[in-house]
Amino acid sequence: MKQYTSSTLIKAFVISGLLTAEAALSAPRAKPPNVVLIVADDLGYGDLGCYGATKIKTPNIDRLAKEGIRLTDAHAAAAVCQPSRYAILSGRYYWRSTPNPGYSYYFDEGEKLLPQLLKEAGYRTAGFGKWHLGFGSPKPADMNGALTPGTREAGFDYYFGLPRSHNEPPFVFFENDHVYQLDPDDPLVMVPHEKMPKGSDYGWGGSRGAAKAHAARPEDQIDLILTDRVVEFVGQQSPDKPFFIYLPFTAPHYPITPNNAFIGTSEADRYGDFVQQLDACVGRVLEALEKKGLKDNTLVMLTSDNGAVNTGEPVAKGHHPNGILLGQKTDAWDGGHKVPFIVRWPGRLPSGKISGILFGLEDLMATILAAADVPMPGGAGLDSLNQLPALEGKAPFVRTEMVYQGVLGFALRKGPWVYVPADGSQGFTTDRGFGVPYEEMGFRNSSRDKTGRLLPNAPPDQLYNVHEDPGQHLNVVREYPEQAKSMAARLLRIVGPNPRNIVH
Fold first, then answer.
1. What DSSP letter does each residue of 296-342 carry, written as one string?
2. Rounded to two decimals, what is the model's pTM?
3. Taking burial as the number of CB atoms within 10 A of a residue's CB, which of 36, 116, 311, 499 is the most buried?
């Protein structure tokens, strides 16, 4: 039998280690994935078939869920559009940003954003859809001039979309840093709400002139046009250069304007038709990826910027857009910010899985960067957590707490608990009579009567265990005073004594 001296063994280990290190250095790096981030506008937790909808059919999104992971505890950082979208692209809560006047550029000077970092890492970055994060600094940009700073400064090589929601002026598309199809001899005129004929606008004013630009954005074709652009973009891509697509659709945000091809196709009135149109658009994007042979190495994420508005038509048909959740868009109650979230990456993530991890949309930045193997710079994405290990099943929970922002106040989530430091929805459900009346929704809450009025003996704050009570029916703040006290102190430490609300 051959004898090995200690020096021989040490030498063998050293050689083996060097060979292993050499092999690791010479091994090709994994190809970075393409990334497609789809953000619906006001899509509720109960609007998709895979989340329990029965009167709306969403076969394409349901298939995406079957081929990937469907999350059951994902939340927008805010219950309305702009602050939520800010958090998605910046990885920061809205109140950390500098206030911007009007519709000027939302991001702070020097702030590092998701598309910027991907672009710097070699990605081609493109956006299609609702921007709603402003142009110009420090004042809003003149819509007849250069829309800068704007999407290019935010890191997009190319952007085609809407300046704001499709119920807000100007009712045009923009492409990169100019209004699309704008004729210099026919300028765009912005008209404030108070100068519009009564009942002629959506409360945000109007826009006139620019006939060619207005005609290029037919209201019932917006998402269809965006989808055409995305399909064309995917078809042009080279397998040698990864791409990032940010696709914020307009559906099903008010006004409910499905194309004629989809009217009458659901059992939830035109709202359901609009969601089914959204599903068809998603299906076309997924088909484009498959035709190009990009499915396996493309990370697709689909979510919503906040909860749905409880509008009368679908509710009358028996469809509740937010499912069993209390509240709606604008609220710090879960109906305002709990959203669908589906992720598919066949080359890396499991399929057919349902996950209950707590996921904040501000985590998209760190998670996508981790998937792309792009480091997060110091000071960037302060509120964003890398959830890739949890999605892979390598870590049970990455996030254990999160702040929810309604338009009038905040809530803190910690483990199964949600603490609200005041009474009411912290949004428009209890404070403004927004959407379908409280009692018609069949809401139940131990602090309020069936009409939604606060009971005389109700406590001044709220505490819910959403694992046991996902509909937030039972306010247990008096049963667990120490839990409430601890969370109140924690929320104060996070947001400070005078946090910036969305609506003043």
1. TTEEEEEEESSPPP--HHHHHTT--TTTT-S--TT-SSGGGTEEEEE
2. 0.94
3. 36
In the chain, how many H helices and how many E strands?
Answer: 12, 17
Amino acid at the residue 423 = D
Q: Which residues of 85-103 are buried (b: 16+ CB within 10 A; e: fewer)?
A: bbbbbbbbbbbbbeebeeb
The domain 34-180+216-396 is placed in CATH, from the list 3.40.50.170, 3.40.630.40, 3.40.50.1820, 3.40.720.10, at: 3.40.720.10
- Residues facing 209 on adjacent strands: 188
192 and 168 in contact (C-beta within 8 Å)?
no
Cβ–Cβ < 8 Å for 313, 269:
yes
Mean pLDDT throughout 273-278?
Answer: 98
Confidence grade of residue 290 (pLDDT, cut at 50, 70, 90): very high
Domain boundaries, the chain: 34-180+216-396, 404-495
User: Is residue 406 scored above 80 in pLDDT?
Assistant: yes
The mean pLDDT of 375-382, rounded to a whole number, is 96
Tell me the Cα Rg of the chain.
24
Q: Distance between CA 75 and CA 301 in Å, rounded?
A: 14
Q: Tokens standing for 425?
A: 């929805």
For residue 424, give the nearest of 408, 413, 440, 401 by alpha carbon. Answer: 408
pLDDT of residue 28: 53
Nearest to 338 by CA among 276, 248, 406: 406
Give the integer Cα–Cα distance in Å for 233 and 213: 22
Class of domain 404-495: alpha beta
pLDDT tens for each residue of 316-349: 999 999 999 999 999 999 999 999 999 999 989 9
CA dist 47 and 185 (Å) reads 44
Determine the pLDDT at residue 55: 98
Picking from 320, 282, 256, the residue whose alpha carbon sits closest to that of residue 53 is: 320
CA torsion angle 487 489 492 497 (round to 10): 140
Q: Answer with the residue of higher pLDDT: 433 or 358.
A: 358
Q: Which of 278, 336, 277 is nearest to 306 (CA)?
A: 336
- Measured from the Cβ of residue 477, the count of other Cβ atoms closer than 10 Å reads 22
The whole-angstrom separation of Cα 366 and Cα 94 is 17
Amino acid of residue 238: S
Q: What is the pLDDT of residues 41-70, one digit of tens each?
A: 999 999 999 999 999 999 999 999 999 999
Q: CA-based diameter of the chain, in Å?
A: 101
DSSP 179-241: ETT--TTS-EEEE-GGGSPTTSSSSS-EEEE-HHHHHTS-GGGHHHHHHHHHHHHHHH--TTS
